[in-house]
Protein backbone atom coordinates (compact mmCIF):
# COMPACT_ATOMS: atom_id res chain seq x y z
CA UNK A 1 0.00 0.00 0.00
CA UNK A 2 1.29 3.44 -0.93
CA UNK A 3 1.58 6.13 1.73
CA UNK A 4 -0.73 9.13 1.36
CA UNK A 5 1.72 11.41 3.17
CA UNK A 6 5.30 11.15 4.34
CA UNK A 7 7.94 13.15 6.17
CA UNK A 8 11.61 12.69 6.96
CA UNK A 9 13.63 14.23 9.73
CA UNK A 10 17.36 14.16 10.48
CA UNK A 11 19.02 15.64 13.55
CA UNK A 12 22.10 15.31 15.73
CA UNK A 13 22.05 12.80 18.57
CA UNK A 14 21.90 15.42 21.30
CA UNK A 15 19.48 14.85 24.18
CA UNK A 16 17.94 18.29 23.58
CA UNK A 17 16.64 16.98 20.24
CA UNK A 18 14.56 14.20 21.80
CA UNK A 19 11.76 16.65 22.62
CA UNK A 20 11.99 18.13 19.13
CA UNK A 21 11.53 14.66 17.60
CA UNK A 22 8.46 13.97 19.77
CA UNK A 23 6.80 17.24 18.82
CA UNK A 24 7.67 17.00 15.11
CA UNK A 25 6.27 13.48 14.76
CA UNK A 26 3.16 14.27 16.79
CA UNK A 27 2.52 17.40 14.69
CA UNK A 28 2.76 15.30 11.53
CA UNK A 29 0.38 12.65 12.91
CA UNK A 30 -2.09 15.35 14.06
CA UNK A 31 -3.57 15.46 10.54
CA UNK A 32 -5.31 12.16 11.37
CA UNK A 33 -7.10 13.83 14.32
CA UNK A 34 -5.84 11.34 16.93
CA UNK A 35 -7.14 11.21 20.47
CA UNK A 36 -5.01 12.71 23.22
CA UNK A 37 -4.13 9.17 24.31
CA UNK A 38 -3.05 8.14 20.79
CA UNK A 39 -0.83 11.18 20.37
CA UNK A 40 0.65 10.60 23.82
CA UNK A 41 1.38 6.96 22.92
CA UNK A 42 3.20 8.01 19.74
CA UNK A 43 5.19 10.71 21.55
CA UNK A 44 6.25 8.21 24.22
CA UNK A 45 7.30 5.55 21.71
CA UNK A 46 9.28 8.07 19.62
CA UNK A 47 10.91 9.44 22.76
CA UNK A 48 12.07 5.97 23.79
CA UNK A 49 13.43 5.12 20.33
CA UNK A 50 15.30 8.42 19.99
CA UNK A 51 16.67 8.17 23.53
CA UNK A 52 17.96 4.67 22.77
CA UNK A 53 19.78 6.01 19.71
CA UNK A 54 21.32 8.87 21.68
CA UNK A 55 22.25 7.01 24.87
CA UNK A 56 23.05 3.53 23.59
CA UNK A 57 23.64 3.86 19.86
CA UNK A 58 26.08 6.75 19.99
CA UNK A 59 27.08 6.59 23.67
CA UNK A 60 29.55 9.46 24.20
CA UNK A 61 29.68 10.71 20.61
CA UNK A 62 27.44 12.75 18.35
CA UNK A 63 25.91 11.09 15.31
CA UNK A 64 22.71 11.48 13.34
CA UNK A 65 19.24 10.14 14.07
CA UNK A 66 16.91 9.60 11.12
CA UNK A 67 13.13 9.47 11.40
CA UNK A 68 10.63 8.79 8.68
CA UNK A 69 6.89 8.82 9.20
CA UNK A 70 4.32 7.58 6.72
CA UNK A 71 0.56 7.82 6.87
CA UNK A 72 -1.60 5.32 5.00
CA UNK A 73 -5.23 5.56 3.84
CA UNK A 74 -6.40 3.17 6.58
CA UNK A 75 -5.15 5.64 9.27
CA UNK A 76 -2.03 3.62 9.99
CA UNK A 77 1.13 5.49 10.89
CA UNK A 78 4.46 3.77 10.28
CA UNK A 79 7.55 5.22 11.91
CA UNK A 80 11.16 4.34 11.34
CA UNK A 81 13.80 5.59 13.78
CA UNK A 82 17.36 4.80 12.68
CA UNK A 83 20.89 5.48 13.82
CA UNK A 84 24.29 4.50 12.49
CA UNK A 85 25.76 3.94 15.93
CA UNK A 86 27.30 0.90 17.57
CA UNK A 87 24.39 -1.46 16.90
CA UNK A 88 23.02 -4.21 19.12
CA UNK A 89 24.82 -7.51 19.52
CA UNK A 90 21.74 -9.55 20.50
CA UNK A 91 18.42 -7.90 19.56
CA UNK A 92 16.32 -10.70 21.08
CA UNK A 93 18.00 -10.15 24.45
CA UNK A 94 17.89 -6.35 24.13
CA UNK A 95 14.09 -6.26 23.73
CA UNK A 96 13.56 -8.22 26.96
CA UNK A 97 12.13 -6.00 29.72
CA UNK A 98 14.74 -4.86 32.26
CA UNK A 99 17.70 -5.76 30.04
CA UNK A 100 20.22 -2.92 29.81
CA UNK A 101 23.85 -2.48 28.89
CA UNK A 102 24.02 0.61 31.11
CA UNK A 103 26.57 -0.01 33.85
CA UNK A 104 25.77 3.10 35.92
CA UNK A 105 22.29 1.92 36.94
CA UNK A 106 20.71 5.04 35.42
CA UNK A 107 18.71 3.09 32.81
CA UNK A 108 15.88 0.66 33.60
CA UNK A 109 16.02 -1.39 30.40
CA UNK A 110 12.37 -0.74 29.57
CA UNK A 111 12.72 1.27 26.33
CA UNK A 112 11.73 -1.46 23.89
CA UNK A 113 8.98 -2.72 26.22
CA UNK A 114 7.51 0.79 26.37
CA UNK A 115 7.69 1.16 22.57
CA UNK A 116 5.93 -2.17 22.16
CA UNK A 117 3.25 -1.30 24.74
CA UNK A 118 2.38 2.04 23.13
CA UNK A 119 2.23 0.90 19.50
CA UNK A 120 0.45 -1.85 17.60
CA UNK A 121 3.63 -3.32 16.12
CA UNK A 122 7.32 -2.98 16.84
CA UNK A 123 10.30 -4.50 15.09
CA UNK A 124 14.01 -3.94 15.66
CA UNK A 125 16.85 -4.59 13.25
CA UNK A 126 20.45 -4.01 14.16
CA UNK A 127 23.94 -4.75 12.93
CA UNK A 128 26.86 -4.39 15.33
CA UNK A 129 29.08 -1.53 14.19
CA UNK A 130 26.50 -0.23 11.71
CA UNK A 131 23.48 0.87 13.72
CA UNK A 132 19.92 0.11 14.70
CA UNK A 133 16.54 0.67 13.09
CA UNK A 134 13.26 0.56 15.02
CA UNK A 135 10.02 0.14 13.08
CA UNK A 136 6.82 1.21 14.84
CA UNK A 137 3.22 1.05 13.64
CA UNK A 138 0.12 2.59 15.18
CA UNK A 139 -3.45 2.67 13.87
CA UNK A 140 -5.30 5.88 14.68
CA UNK A 141 -8.87 5.00 15.59
CA UNK A 142 -11.77 7.16 14.48
CA UNK A 143 -13.16 9.45 17.18
CA UNK A 144 -16.64 9.02 15.71
From TrEMBL:
Protein family per UniProt: Belongs to the anti-sigma-factor family.
Leading EC class: transferase
SUPFAM superfamilies, per the entry: ATPase domain of HSP90 chaperone/DNA topoisomerase II/histidine kinase
Gene: spoIIAB
GO molecular-function terms, A-Z: ATP binding; protein serine/threonine kinase activity; sigma factor antagonist activity
GO biological process terms on file: asexual sporulation; negative regulation of sporulation resulting in formation of a cellular spore; sporulation resulting in formation of a cellular spore
Record-annotated Histidine kinase/HSP90-like ATPase domain positions: 37-142
Pfam families for this protein: HATPase_c_2
Organism: Neobittarella massiliensis (ex Bilen et al. 2018)
Function (record text): Binds to sigma F and blocks its ability to form an RNA polymerase holoenzyme (E-sigma F). Phosphorylates SpoIIAA on a serine residue. This phosphorylation may enable SpoIIAA to act as an anti-anti-sigma factor that counteracts SpoIIAB and thus releases sigma F from inhibition.
Catalyzed reaction equations: L-threonyl-[protein] + ATP = O-phospho-L-threonyl-[protein] + ADP + H(+); L-seryl-[protein] + ATP = O-phospho-L-seryl-[protein] + ADP + H(+)
Domain of life where this protein originates: Bacteria
E.C. code: 2.7.11.1
Protein name: Anti-sigma F factor
Keywords from the UniProt entry: ATP-binding, Kinase, Nucleotide-binding, Serine/threonine-protein kinase, Sporulation, Transferase
Amino acid sequence: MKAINEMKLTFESRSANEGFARVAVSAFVAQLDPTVEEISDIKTAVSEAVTNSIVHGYKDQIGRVYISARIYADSVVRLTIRDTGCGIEDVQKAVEPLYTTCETGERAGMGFAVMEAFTDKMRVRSTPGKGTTVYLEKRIRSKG
